[in-house]
């Protein structure tokens, strides 16, 4: 015959005896991030060179068209890395493709919600601050986009860094080919450029980066923003636009 101390109930009591308060809620643990470096190398990344320039007419944004795996293999030659997210604003994709696409979808939804609730467009400064807050606190993997737009206060170009920093400038470049693109852009930029002039400068800067940066290439997408809207068009042949 078993003693009470050998019973299943006794065993349960013994297990609970080490717990200071068995009635407190049990706190679960977050799932572990099991991503390895090999996994990260197989994430589709834009690599990228992206440029934003303020002009007398509005804003010009230019990006290359290449996506790669780990910067070594070209996984797509026709990636549109600039998307309209505002009636007179657009954002570039830099970093992981999935993170950038999710970031753009989220911002676009917030802009639509703002317009529906208030009956007016969000200012570009407010949109930039919102983008910075999302980058800082959201689940968006390794992004560094450029936001460009036109509102009542004029033309704006912002760089949004991965930690949520928001910096406005007359022109900016992000991505793996930024140093190469800046070399041409610094020499060519002038105040009071027209959109046509800025488009040529931006395209030439993208071409300069594509010559040496393995993460950039396969053509250029050009985005022209004015107070009338956003126009995006792609060119696989640089000679068409430079």
Give the topology.
Layout: H1 8-16, H2 37-41, E1 44-45, E2 49-54, E3 59-64, E4 67-69, E5 73-76, E6 82-86, E7 89-92, H3 97-118, H4 124-137, E8 146-151, E9 154-160, E10 166-168, E11 171-175, H5 178-188, H6 195-212, E12 220-226, E13 229-235
Antiparallel strand pairs: 1-4, 2-3, 2-11, 3-12, 4-5, 6-7, 7-8, 8-9, 9-10, 12-13
Helix pairs in contact: 5-6
Function: Component of the proteasome core, a large protease complex with broad specificity involved in protein degradation.
Subcellular location: Cytoplasm
Protein name: Proteasome subunit beta
Quick one: biggest sheet? 5 strands, antiparallel
The number of distinct helices, counting runs of at least 4 residues, comes to 6
End-to-end separation:
95 Å
Oligomer: single chain
Report the radius of gyration as a whole number of Å. Answer: 25 Å
What share of the residues does DSSP label as strand, in percent?
Answer: 25-35%
Strand order of the largest sheet: 11-2-3-12-13
Residue share in helices?
Answer: 25-40%
In CATH, the homologous superfamily goes by the name Aminohydrolase, N-terminal nucleophile (Ntn) domain
At CATH level 3, the topology is Glutamine Phosphoribosylpyrophosphate, subunit 1, domain 1
Give a structural overview.
It is a single chain. The protein has helices spanning 8-16, 37-41, 97-118, 124-137, 178-188, 195-212, and strands spanning 44-45, 49-54, 59-64, 67-69, 73-76, 82-86, 89-92, 146-151, 154-160, 166-168, 171-175, 220-226, 229-235. By secondary structure, it is of the alpha+beta class. It has one domain: 4-Layer Sandwich (Glutamine Phosphoribosylpyrophosphate, subunit 1, domain 1), CATH 3.60.20. The strands form 3 sheets. Strands 11-2-3-12-13 form a 5-stranded antiparallel sheet, covered by helices on one side. The chain has a 5-stranded antiparallel sheet with strand order 6-7-8-9-10. A hairpin with a 4-residue loop joins strand 2 and strand 3. It is globular, with a radius of gyration of 25 Å. The model has no long low-confidence stretch (mean pLDDT 85). Residues 1-47 form a propeptide. Belongs to the peptidase T1B family. InterPro entries: Ntn_hydrolases_N, Pept_T1A_Psome_bsu_arc, Pept_T1A_subB, Proteasome_sua/b, Proteasome_suB-type. Residues 1-38 are annotated as: Disordered.
